Amino acid sequence: TLGGDLAMRLDLFAAAAVAGFLLLGIQRSFQSTAYDTALRKLDSRVSALEGQRGNAQRSQIGSQFSQDLFREDQQKQSMSEPASDRSSAASNKGGRKVFIDLGANCGNSYLKLKRKKVLEGKWEVYLWEANPQMVKFYLTDLASKDPDVQIVPLAAWTENKKMKFYLTKGQENVTDIKQFKAHKCNPRSIHQPAGASSLFSGAGMGDDKRRKNAHKPGSEVIVDAVDFAAWLSDLKLTPSDHVILKIDIEGAELPLLKKFLKSAPLPCLVDIFYVEWHSWMIADLKERAETEAFETGFLDAVAAVCGGKKPTFGAWH
What we know:
Layout: H1 2-49, H2 55-80, H3 83-88, E1 97-102, H4 108-115, E2 124-128, H5 132-145, E3 149-152, E4 155-157, E5 161-168, E6 217-227, H6 228-234, E7 242-247, H7 253-261, E8 272-275, H8 285-296, H9 298-305, E9 312-315
Parallel strand pairs: 1-2, 1-7, 2-3, 4-6, 7-8, 8-9
Antiparallel strand pairs: 5-6
């Protein structure tokens, strides 16, 4: 009968809806455990390598897997935190809106977040970049056209001092913007003019010989490094302000954030962290594992000093 056919179709529709919700739950559960599963795989693979391959082979494979792990975490984060959700948080606060970019490169990250409408309206923008080439060829021009932008031509660090800064190999003597390997400042691309310029050299960072950078450095220049926590304190931020902190400083994020976590309440004033981690650059497997543990536990560490409050976090690249 017509009534029986309608009832049967409604039953089938209900069953399909239930199945859909179950599949969605399974998918979300899988995403939430993917990172832990990847960590277990890393442990087992490193263990299996012991006694089978030389130190060079172990370092190469461990580094590759760390990069794969970073990409998986990046994909999971982008699925779980749409740009529209992140940007809407700013409208819930009535204070200042502040964007701080440590490792601004050519300004591509700032332009990217503007394009994604994360930075809508009036913002205080501080673009930190220690590479003098980026300041000369890109950032000075950007600031001249955008009154919201302030350039901070310094290296973000744990104290005030002079430090060695290594330019990207092959780009040390650039006299024309088109000589950079990726000279266009493209917010849609992962390839940018500064390349891998860093406080790290192939032998270590400054006078710290414990670390080894996977990138081959170019020639060095001397730059001014500044205690970032002290600088941020001078901004006189309050809990009513909306603060976004993006960090991509080629490995220097580890000592900087360790110091930053000891500078409460400053970490508690940051609403959104965008961080590119660089543990994959560390050749020593034990030290890399310790660094990865800090990375994966970073949000819990922030919560521990902020009365349980966790900021939003986005993996950056």
